[in-house]
Amino acid sequence: MKSPSSSLVDHSRRPRRQRAVVAIEASMAAVGRARGYELSRHEAYINLPINGIGVPDQFGRVTTAFDVKARLACNRHVPGINLQFHRSPGGSVRAEREISAAIQHHIDAYGPKHVTAYVRGICASAAVNILLLAKTRRAHPAARFLVHHSALSKKNDFRLTAEVLGRLSTVMRKEDERTLSWIAQRTGMSREDLDAILGVELSADRAKYLGLLTA
Hints:
CATH superfamily: 2-enoyl-CoA Hydratase, Chain A, domain 1
Oligomer: single chain
Shape: globular
């Protein structure tokens, strides 16, 4: 049984953490308004462009967790989220996790949101994980999709010793398992089906057949 003093400590920490979260979100909302992201109360969707995830795509466009949080924080009154994939080749695993977590937090914290996604060009690698957050997923007939195993960035500047490679191999296997489990959960694909499409470019029709798209 907890002592009265320990109970007091436990309860005193929670408001402090909550105040910190509120302050951070207020700060992010201010950033979003300063960048011109705030929408009118008549808007039905927050449009979130998904480009290179954490790293620039070939046109220099990049989507960061900071930018996503700013867009969401200043539009808590908007009932829906629309994920827009123009040319999203994937990018940083860490950035994808942070972006996915920000979107999911927004959904959980501010009530049920109708999350949709539309792919106009390419949706590959880590971008697929973000795509699957949407309940309704559609694409242009010419859109292309790609799921593949984790890979090292060419920009890594550490020495690839046997020890480092061993550790990276373990991390990458875990990341592959996370991705494949998430795709299976959201699409109903079997592990056999997933293994068959790894590294294979998929058409919009094929993606719909496999469950990556819903319409």
